[in-house]
Amino acid sequence: MEKPSTQDSILKILKGKSSMKQDVYEKTVKAFVMMRTVAYEIVRDIKANPDLTDKRVIVEYRERGEFEFEIRISGDLLIFGMHTNIFEFDKSHLIWKGSYLKEDPSRSFCGMINVYNFLNDSFKYHRINDLGYLIGRIFINKESHYFVEGKRQLGFLHNDFNHATLDEKAVREVLESIILHCLNFDLYTPPFDSIREITVSEMQAASESMQIQTGKRLGFRFQADSDEIK
């Protein structure tokens, strides 16, 4: 039997894995577009709710480009960004334990949407040294199955990769969970010793642009919150 040529091997990968990755990419784009629409609707519904009487509380939706959008919710800013590449999971990852991937290993290839939480004032006052946190990653495969790696309820509520498909109802549940987590993730004061000393030049720069570093958990290990990303 004639041994396959190198070109045959290349063509096999292009027809198989490369085409499959394009399928995953298209599913991820479709999910991201749906997420944008649902995010806009959630913001619209919150703003229209008669129980939200305090006009100082800002709730806004804004496009940031083809692969990004943001939700401003009170003092927080959530930035959703779709990665344009496709990823596979290491064989040690928990998702390999079920029969779903064992039946078809190509189901492990996923698109990824990252969710970052910043303080809104960090952007408003151009505090470029402020910190943001990755609070969740949404993974979608070629069959629109999904799961969320995230903090606290995000990872617990949305981890049935074998069965869960990302439809409009699921997107709404994921987004509302993210917003709720964001609102419950409060700003901590940094340890006194971490900001006890400051140079004259740093003070002048801080006065000019309000760039004393700020973050929700500044000075603390992220893992110390006991709600680390799983």
Topology record:
Elements: H1 6-48, E1 59-65, E2 68-73, E3 76-82, H2 99-103, E4 111-119, H3 120-124, E5 133-140, E6 146-150, H4 153-157, H5 168-184, H6 200-209
Antiparallel strand pairs: 1-2, 2-3, 3-4, 4-5, 5-6
Structural summary, described in words:
This protein is an alpha+beta fold and 230 residues long. It has one domain. The protein is built from six helices and six strands, in the order H-E-E-E-H-E-H-E-E-H-H-H. The protein has a six-stranded antiparallel β-sheet. Helix 1 packs across helix 5 (168-184).
Primary descriptors:
230 residues, six-stranded antiparallel sheet, alpha+beta, single chain
Approximately how much beta-strand content do the residues carry? 15-25%
The rough form would be described as globular
Head-to-tail CA distance between termini: 48 Å
Sheet bearing the most strands, described?
6 strands, antiparallel
Count of the separate structural domains: 1
Runs with pLDDT <50, length 5+?
218-230
Rg (CA only): 21 Å
Order of helices and strands: HEEEHEHEEHHH
How many DSSP E strands?
6
Q: How are strands sequenced across the largest beta sheet?
A: 1-2-3-4-5-6
Mean pLDDT: 84
Question: What count of helical segments does DSSP give?
Answer: 6
Classify the secondary structure makeup into a structural class: alpha+beta
DSSP helix fraction: 25-40%
Summarize the structure.
By secondary structure, this protein is of the alpha+beta class. Helices cover 37% and strands 18% of the residues.
